[in-house]
Every structure is written in C-alpha cells, then in structure tokens.
Amino acid sequence: MQKKDIFYWALYDFANSFPVIVFALYFSQWLVIENHVSDFYYNLIFVIASVLLILTSPVLGAISDQKGIKLPFLKILTVSMIMTILITAFLTLFFKTSTTIITLAAFFFLLTNYLYQFSLVFYYALFPQLAKLEKRGFVSGLGGGAGWLGQIVGLLVTLPFATGAIYLFGNPGRPQTFLPSIILFFLFSLPMLFLFKEKVHSTQAKISIKQEYQKYFDNFKTLIKIPGMGRFLLGYFFFTDAVLTLQNNYPIYLQQVYQVNDKLKAIFSITALLASVIGSIIIGYLADKKGLKKTLVVLMGIWILVIPFFSLAPDFTIFWAFAILVGFLGGATYPILRSILSYLSPEEKLSSSFSYYALMERFSTFLGPLVWRIIVTFLTSIGSSRYRIGMFSMGLFVILSFIILRKIPFRVTH
C-alpha cells in the first residue's frame, strides 16, 4: 500500500466533510426554521442537484475512463465547490435576508451539493489504486473514518461561531459557521490536489462529448451487464435513499420532535459521528478478514432492526442512544459498499462505475424525500408524530435494499 497517497486521499475526505456537516446542520435550519422555507423546497434542492448529476456524471465518468485520468476532474470540481460555498457564505453573512437573498443562497447551496457529489465520482475512483483487493475494505474504512472525523472537527470548530461565543462580522447566528468551514476545507484539501500521485493508465487524444451523450444509455446497459453490478446499484439506491433522507432532515427532526437547541444538536451530532469513525475503521478491517458480502449482510440486518426503534424512541435520551448505534452502522456500511463496487467494476470502468454509484445516491433523493414530504405534509393533524412516521418509513427502503444486495454474486465479493 502507498502510505503517503492513502494519507492524502483520506485527508481529502476529512477536508470536504467540514462544509458537508456545517451546511447539513446549520444551512438547513437557516433556510427552513429561520426563514420559513417549506421542507418541500429544501428537499427540492437535492432533487434538482440529482438531475444535474444525471445529465453530467456518467458522460464525464466515461471520458475520464477513456483518458485514464481522474485527478484533474477532481481538482476542477473542488475549486468550483470552494467558490460556490464562498458565495453562499457571502450572501448569508453580508446581506439582510430577503426573498432574493434566500433564493440566491439556496441556488448556490444547490450547486455546492451538486459539485460535492460530482467530485466524489473521481475521488472514489482513485481509491482502488491505493491497495490490493484484499486490503480495500480497510483502506476504504480509513477514508470513511477520516470523513466522519472531519465532521466532528467541523462541528467543534464552528460551534462557538453558531452560539455567538465567537463573532466574525456580518449577520450573527448560523451564517457565522459557513466561512470557517470553507477555510478548513481549502487548507486540508491542498495535499490531495497537489501531492497525490495518480497512476495514469492510458490516454486518448480525441474525445467527443457529443458522441458520449449519444452513447449515454448504451454505456449504462454495458455497465449493468457486469455480473452483480445492476443488482448492486439498485440495492444501493434503496439503502442510500433511506440514509440520506434521514441525514438531510435530522436537524429539523430534532427541532420538531424534541425541541433541541443548536448547541445540543452539535453535541448529539459529534457523538454519532464519533461512533461512525469507530465503525468505519473497525468494520472495514474486519470485512477484509471475514468477507465483504458477509459483513454487508449482517450490517443490513442490524439496520432493519434498529430504524423502527430509532423512530419510536419515547424521549431524546433514548433517541440519542440509538443515534450512536446508527452512527456506527453508517460509518461501517458505506466503506463496505465502496469496496464491493471496486470488486465488481473492471479497472477500465472505475470512473463510470462510481459515476453511477454517485448517481444512485443522488437519484435516491427523489423517492425518499418525496415519501417524507407526503407524510409530514398530509399528517399535520397528528403534530410532530408525523416526523416519527416519516423516519419509520425509511426502514422499508432498507428492507428492499437488503433483499436485493444479499444476492450479489458471492464469488465476486469473497
């Protein structure tokens, strides 16, 4: 294993986690709670970002595979993301909130979300070069653990800004957290962007974007004919549909169901994320020993048992205890899924495979948020309990995922 490149790769996941957690926790509340934007429009942001990803990531992923390069794409997307976050921070910090400012901030948040997901296509496609097949669970777990750790550090660093203990300039409150998060992202992403050594496998002088769009569906058909690939992508779609819907809505859930303040939300998030760090590294290591598929099946079974109890927790203390377990499971599951995909995909199709991996993750923001929105909109008569029902419904998506993923070809995943 190439230890320096593994460090740079994991450090990038650590870096991009700062704006991810800060915006998930504080921007969502700035938009929905402070400025009274409907949950529907907040979730619509992720839907539109998904459409943009559908239109671009498979084509750019195919071009990346043909050129045999991934890092240049990651650099461009990272710089673009830094710019959109800076603009969002500028709008929320220096302008009085109005319909125009709220709309613009939401638009640049949408672009940030799109660019972040797009960047992961090339970031994930780089990791198979870092380790042999039998070590990928551990390496993927290191990256996942670094990402969760980055979210913890991001929360700890920005908490004083959110509570008003530290004040920069401009509008007080949640917008104060956005600028520190982007500064940290910029600084810690530099080693990956400038020191990481990519193994370039081939080059192709001429690439036609028009032709790639014409081959859009043919490329997808070819990809899903790879043994286990179609089943994996479908199962991953249902799993991440549930998890992302919960992740995107949990700050609002805590507010509506338990009336939790921002400081306690941050502490709550830190404990769950710490469990994710532990789960990511430990289970990633064990999966290389016990087998990726066996590990995944066990994890999915635990998810199915936990989500109903999670949604029915009678008080915040019990909910918190289950959240720690959910954090552990989340940290453990995603590195295993990434590793399995790297097994299923031929080396020359890695960018394309991970583009559809990212696409399934984004495409999942259609169905989950739609179900969530229908429940919280049409069950207003039962008050905050409608949020519990929304969370409970996500367990059905995990069951579907389990049914599909357990039949991935065993020979491919140990």
List keywords for this structure.
single chain, 414 residues, mainly alpha, Growth Hormone, Chain: A, globular
Question: Would you mind describing this structure in some detail?
Answer:
The protein has one domain: Up-down Bundle (Growth Hormone, Chain: A), CATH 1.20.1250. The protein is built from 14 helices and no strands. With 414 residues, the chain is mainly alpha-helical. Helix 9 runs antiparallel to helix 14. The mean pLDDT is 82.
Secondary structure blueprint with pairings:
Elements: H1 3-34, H2 39-67, H3 71-94, H4 99-126, H5 136-163, H6 178-195, H7 209-214, H8 216-224, H9 229-258, H10 262-290, H11 292-311, H12 316-344, H13 350-378, H14 385-405
Which value, in Å, is the CA radius of gyration? 20 Å
N-C termini distance: 20 Å
- Judged by helices, strands and strand pairing, the structural class is mainly alpha
Q: How much of the residues is beta strand, in percent?
A: under 5%
Number of domains: 1
Largest sheet: none
The CATH class assignment is Mainly Alpha
Indicate the CATH topology: Growth Hormone, Chain: A
How many strands in all?
0
Brief digest:
The chain has 414 residues and is mainly α. It has helices at 3-34, 39-67, 71-94, 99-126, 136-163, 178-195, 209-214, 216-224, 229-258, 262-290, 292-311, 316-344, 350-378, 385-405.
